[in-house]
């Protein structure tokens, strides 16, 4: 028996946006920083978690990263950080096109562990969801079950009538614990097949077409 699905909830990064870290590498080169320095100061620091759950804004977090880098490596670093900050990742155009098709059939939300910059990033990339849930706005991040339940509540759909896709197995397991029909995302082709199995009349890619997930 096919599960009744009234809405989709999807992860952002790895599905609709891909990070190549070209901006961070450029900034590190300009500032003479060892490779991986920005990631260590920005994403491996507790301040990033505070930004992800809305205690800090994206700008406050970035300012904190800048101050710590300049304190440790010198004031010249400040002027070199623009490439890191202006790099908003690369959109997956095939998934974005597929999203447009799916939204004609069901409401689609995005649930992402990120700062309050998500809405601006979506506008920057021209990607539109019916519901947008940055963890910074929810005040809780994945894999907490509260993140999934809050998203479902805002969508007005029971969790067991939502299909969820993520490329992180831990987050898939957490979504499943709330009753969502959670699936591991591996490619746009597999995503399409899964949606067809759930009853969405999406056309499969022709054999000679380019891969959907670039």
Tell me what you see in this structure:
With 214 residues, the protein is an alpha/beta fold. It has two domains: 7-18 and 90-197, Rossmann fold, CATH 3.40.50; 22-86. Helix content is 45%, strand content 12%. It is built from eleven helices and seven strands. The chain has helices at residues 22-31, 37-42, 46-52, 58-73, 82-86, 93-103, 118-125, 135-138, 145-155, 169-177, 188-197, and strands spanning 7-10, 17-18, 90-91, 108-112, 131-134, 162-166, 181-184. The chain has a five-stranded parallel β-sheet with strand order 5-4-1-6-7, sandwiched between helices. A two-stranded antiparallel ribbon has the order 2-3. The longest helix is centred in the first third of the chain and has 16 residues, at 58-73. The radius of gyration is 19 Å and the shape is elongated. The two termini are 33 Å apart. The mean pLDDT is 94.
